[in-house]
Amino acid sequence: MENQLTKLNIFSLKGVQMRTFHITWLMFFVCFFGWFGLAPLMPTIRAELHLTKGQIGNIIIASVSATIIARLIIGKLCDTWGPRKTAIRLLLVGSLPVFFVGLAHDYTTFLLFRLAIGVIGASFVITQFHTSMMFAPKLKGTANAVTGGWGNLGGGVTNMVMPLIFAAIVGFGYTKAEAWRYAMIVPGVMMLVIAFLYSKYTKDTPNGNYDEVGYTQGKSSKTDWSVLADWRIWALTMAYAMCFGMEITFDNVASLHFVDSFHLSQSSAGFWAGIFGFMNIFARALGGIVSDKVGNKFGMRGKGLLLAGVLLCEGALLILFAQSGSLLAAIVSMLSFALFLKMANGATYGIVPFVNTKNVGLVSGIVGAGGNFGGMLFGFLFKSDSITYVQAFTYIGYTVIAVSIIVFITRFYKQSVPSKETDPVIAGSMA
Asked: Magnesium as a keyword (predicted)?
């Protein structure tokens, strides 16, 4: 595609490519801020709604399961509507349950609102798709990882900020039961602001919107489900389930884990849970940057080996975190496994744009949905009354190691598209 950038200057707002770059990661950030805005407030919500461990587990599962279907749909809509229209509509519709979750006064209604809020987690697919449209093949992994990492940062910042917003509202004289409800108005307003920015300052492609450049003309509107026969996509889906799936699970349970295991206050637990998410400011980008450099030197096989390696380290260090007997040991091991987990996120999407250039949105959606499917399955472990959080973390660690072996033996460099797209660099083109 013409006019794709070959250089990433993260401090620039010049040109539609860089404006889109910054607005799309900001959209992702705000959606994640709203998606996980309730997680650090769960100690208060648990007490007010008298939630059991099993009910909390169901809420965690609901918060990530809706996104599975949403990401598949959003991926296809990016191919047909274009990422700009898709993002604006997702922000407008998704803001509604964020605003109105405060109306929940029992377990069932809270669960349904949490399920509805989960749809905005599909914002990730738009960001990865839109970024891929704006950057040249050699830079896709890096650009996707930076936007993905900075967007994911919303899940960490919300763990730090929402308890502060909650405390400020309590300071104005409201009860705790009122404060968590009013606090959710903040991310709802943020989503509306970003919808305006997305509408005014972005384009679908470097050359204009889909309807302006005739991008979809001659393209079949029928979903090409033949991509499901490609084993590489399933390997990437499993990989993303292990890294991003673990990330959203940890975002959901970290505050409760620190409160229950180390007797921290809600604000202190939120701070340490937020540090986990804050690693995204550089770690996911690092995974994408290294993936691009390895890919330039060793091709797709090198990218696959890198992904397998960081997954292996993530799994081993997650087991170490589970066995931590002190807060200091837990924090050190948490930061260690977080580094490799978030690098694995970046390394996964350093491969995604290359495996099937005719269906980039669909493939991004499938792999992205895999991340949420992993989070949903992990949620069942944290729901069980017979499995402790420590045991759940341990089981997940061993599962991550097993998937790293699957990724290791997957031949990513073997293309399943026509010969003109067999070269990794050419295959990265969105033309």
From this structure: no
5 DSSP β-pair partners? 135
CA distance from start to end of the chain: 5
CA distances to 42, 54, 392 from 266, in Å:
9, 21, 22
Are 360 and 234 a contacting pair, CB within 8 Å? no
4 token code pair: 């794709």
| CA–CA distance, 324 with 328 (Å, rounded to integer) | 8
Q: How many CB atoms lie within 10 A of CB 201?
A: 14
* Helices 283-322 & 231-262 angle (0-180, nearest 10): 60
Residue partners of 186: CB distance under 8 A and separation at least 6? 37, 165
State the Cα torsion 321-309-427-82 to the nearest 10°. Answer: 0
Maximum CA extent, the chain:
67
* Residue 286 Cα distances to 22, 279, 313, 333, 345, angstroms: 18, 11, 15, 19, 10
At 341, which amino acid appears? Answer: L
Distances (CA, A) of 422 to 102, 413, 425: 52, 8, 9
User: Residue 46 and residue 35: Cα distance in Å, rounded?
Assistant: 18
Average pLDDT per consecutive 10 residues, the chain (431 residues; last block may be shorter): 85 94 97 96 96 94 91 88 96 98 97 97 93 89 90 92 97 97 98 98 94 70 79 96 95 92 93 93 93 91 96 98 94 97 94 84 88 94 92 97 97 53 32 26
Continuous H helices in 172-265: 176-183, 185-201, 210-213, 231-262
CB 246 within 8 A of CB 370: no
Give the separation between CA 205 and CA 137, rounded to whole angstroms: 15
- Predicted TM-score (pTM) of this structure: 0.83
